[in-house]
From TrEMBL:
It is an enzyme of class 3 (hydrolase). InterPro entries: AB_hydrolase_fold, CarbesteraseB, Carboxylesterase_B_AS, Carboxylesterase_B_CS, Neuroligin/BSAL. It comes from the Eukaryota. Keywords: Hydrolase, Signal. This is Carboxylic ester hydrolase. It comes from Potamilus streckersoni. One of its GO terms (molecular function) is hydrolase activity.
Length: 585
């Protein structure tokens, strides 16, 4: 049924394009033909030109596999940009479980999409630009999910989405020059440069660019800002539920995974040269289908294939130079998290253990026992690499409701809070606090999204927003997300659509001015800048948009002050260097 609906949607898109206007623009690679369609959202109707599937790099195949992308050579004839490009190779099953899109995959996937309000395409005035980087833990995702015509039309901005390489094909590293890694980050960087070089032809302003992304896309946006060669390519960033501080956003020892992949595919794995030479001869399907090579503990909170130290894009952990990174301190920043961000990771982390619990009643202390003897130790091992009783006791103490410690529901909520804090909330705060303190004359805005949508299929105990739930609101409930997010084509309830409209306007206002309150009225409470005295942030649900202050003060103090001190003592007692506590001010 989902496949049939997808085919119908694609047919409708083709019909709209066939009946709409076309417009040709000239870019560095040649001529590109876009097509217009009529868009209605937020009580407004307008025309949007869509330029889909434009190649921005040569196919990363053969000797180009496991290498930096090469800019696309000139087109031999005008390029008809009428359909999204194929997704980069990835586990289709994972993608279909989250945000189903076009299942077609190819290594020739480095394509870019541009959504242009008709006025921008015809008026001669240059419009602000927003570049979306998709999330998916660096192993799944595709630009075709994120149809952006509603944002472009209502917000009157040019929106760009693109594909980048994923999984082993995007992030395999042998920790040397044979395959240094971060090829997906280099794809992102080339797409950003493509925008800088070409967006004026579409009516966009190359000097008024905002990068925005969710999860791994948010972590990528900050990582791109850390890369000094990107300075001048964008002036604002919006990050949703992710940062380079997230434990899943960096891998310190990637070569072991490259060797395991080689072994799984019967390749020699004694030298980097032999590994890469052999893997370049395998099909992408062979590589992707064999790429889950981590142990159960290694995969608890992260995928195997993520950004690494490569000596060029990243000379160390992205967080090492964060505070002094001029690329970050010279941008405006809007960021936030979802109330149940940790649920997505927690559910994934628990999968290997769920079968053990299937026949056990969640009464008589079973949740408490699981929390203390299985779940907490998983976090401890991820933090210090081994079991540690002191850190385990500290976490149990912090995440126990001592008024009712054996309550099964409260234990479950503690589990979800711990997952959220470790994987999302605190990593986002570690981006926020230095920016608010050091980024003079730049704007900082913070939100929390807490909407449990009417179409949600999450368990009832998730009485808020799961990881990624804000994305369809940010994109104005596009047709491309309907199947994956389980809403009817057009969106949720009336109040949910109104919340989406307000968020689209706030996000695009920020892209225009660095202020989400203007120039377009949002009919919402005025969103103040975040400062270290009042610490005000915007709380978002369909029933209430209001101001709150002081994000999670107790939990924040634990993770940003107490836990680093204990970790330093643990590492010192073992003769190791923890690298010091995280930089937060």
């Amino acid at each position: 049924m989902a496949a049939c609906l997808l085919q119908v949607a694609i047919f409708i898109i083709f019909v709209c394009f066939a009946n709409g206007d076309s417009k040709t623009v000239n870019i560095t690679a040649g001529s590109v033909i876009g097509h217009s369609s009529s868009v209605t959202f937020g009580g407004k109707t307008g025309e949007v030109f869509q330029y889909l599937g434009i190649p921005f790099a040569e196919p990363p195949t053969g000797q180009r596999r496991f290498s930096k992308p090469v800019p696309k050579a000139s087109f031999s004839s005008p390029f008809n940009a009428s359909t999204f490009g194929k997704g980069c190779p990835q586990f289709a099953f994972y993608l279909q479980q989250w945000l189903p899109g076009n299942p077609a995959q190819s290594e020739d996937c480095l394509t870019i999409n541009v959504f242009v309000p008709k006025a921008a395409a015809t008026s001669g005035r240059k419009y602000p630009v927003m570049i979306w980087i998709y999330g998916g833990a660096y192993v799944i995702g595709q630009a075709g999910i994120y149809a952006a015509e509603n944002v472009a039309m209502l917000g009157e901005v040019v929106v760009v989405t693109f594909n980048y390489r994923l999984s082993a094909l995007g992030f395999l590293s042998t920790e040397d020059d044979n395959a240094p890694g971060n090829f997906g980050l280099w794809d992102q960087r080339l797409a950003i440069k493509w925008v800088h070089d070409n967006i004026a032809a579409f009516g966009g302003d190359p000097h008024m660019v905002t990068i925005f992304g969710n999860s791994a896309g948010a972590a990528s946006a900050i990582t791109q800002a850390l890369f000094t060669e990107n300075q001048g390519y964008f002036k604002r960033i919006i990050i949703e539920s992710g940062s380079p501080f997230c434990p899943w956003a960096f891998e310190e020892h990637p070569k072991k995974y490259a060797e395991r992949l080689a072994k799984a595919l019967n390749c020699p794995y004694g030298s980097s040269v032999a590994i890469i030479d052999c893997l370049r001869k395998k099909s992408f399907n062979e590589i992707i289908s064999s790429s889950i090579v981590g142990t159960q503990d290694e995969k608890v909170f992260r995928a195997e294939w993520v950004p690494v130290k490569d000596g060029h894009f990243l000379s160390g952990k992205p967080t090492d130079s964060y505070v002094n990174a001029s690329g970050l301190l010279n941008i405006d920043l809007l960021l936030g998290s979802n109330s149940y961000d940790g649920a997505f990771v927690a559910i994934l982390a628990l999968q290997p253990y769920l079968q053990q619990l299937m026949n056990q009643s969640f009464t008589n202390g079973v949740p408490r026992k699981f929390f203390e003897e299985t779940f907490i130790p998983m976090f401890v091992r991820d933090i210090v690499g081994k079991n540690d009783d002191a850190l385990k006791s500290l976490l149990i103490h912090q995440y126990t409701d001592w008024n009712d410690p054996d309550n099964a529901n409260k234990t479950l909520q503690s589990l979800l809070r711990l997952s959220a804090d470790y994987n999302f909330y605190m990593p986002v705060l570690r981006v926020l606090l230095p920016h608010a303190k050091h980024a003079n004359h730049k704007h900082t805005f913070v939100y929390e999204f807490d909407q449990r949508s009417s179409y949600s299929q999450d368990p009832t105990y998730l009485n808020g927003a799961n990881h990624g739930d804000e994305v369809p609101y940010v994109f104005g409930f596009p047709y491309s997300m309907a199947a994956g997010m389980h809403y009817q084509n057009g969106g949720g309830t009336v109040v949910e659509k109104d919340l989406s409209k307000k968020m689209v306007l706030m996000w695009t206002n920020f892209a225009k001015t660095g202020n989400p309150n203007s120039p377009t009225a949002t009919n919402a409470v005025t969103w103040p800048e975040f400062n270290l005295n009042t610490e005000q942030y915007l709380y978002l649900t369909s029933n209430e948009i209001s101001l709150k202050s002081h994000l999670l003060p107790g939990r924040r103090d634990f993770w940003l002050n107490l836990e680093p001190l204990l970790l330093e003592k643990i590492m010192s007692s073992q003769g190791q260097n923890s690298g010091g506590p995280p930089i937060v001010g």
